[in-house]
Amino acid sequence: ASPQAPMAKAGPDITPPESTPAEPSGPVTWEAPADWTPKALGSMRKGSYDVKGADMSVIAFPGAAGGLVENINRWRGQLKLAPLADSEVAGAATELVSGDLKFAVVDFSGDASSGPARILGAILPRVDETWFFKLMGPHDSVEKSKPAFLDFLKTVKNR
Hints:
The protein has helices at 67-78, 86-92, 139-153, and strands at 28-29, 37-38, 45-51, 54-62, 94-98, 101-112, 115-125, 129-137, 157-158. It is an alpha+beta fold.
């Protein structure tokens, strides 16, 4: 397996989402698929699900929360992957637009403390906060759940 799952490259006409967060701030809502099992939220999670053996988390932080590059590299670090340079991040993320929301979506494979793993993540920068949607687990579990994850992102709405 390659150290990084291939992703479609963002075209030159796509600006990184963090450069123009125009979305209003405040809580968001979503509809989780019926086969996602809700889990305890914990202190930081706004949403938490078991997704066919993978862990799905929804977290929000104030402000830019370090920005797109730092957060993508944080996820890469969780998989023991080398950090990307600022200039490489646009090629590692694809933009998903749903209504008035713009997500930066990444898909990485590597090794976690429990063994080979994959992260399918989406970052939603907003005016004064950043939301993170992360599906992490064994490669096959994440692969099988990828269509549902992308459909899930399309249910995310401003409250």
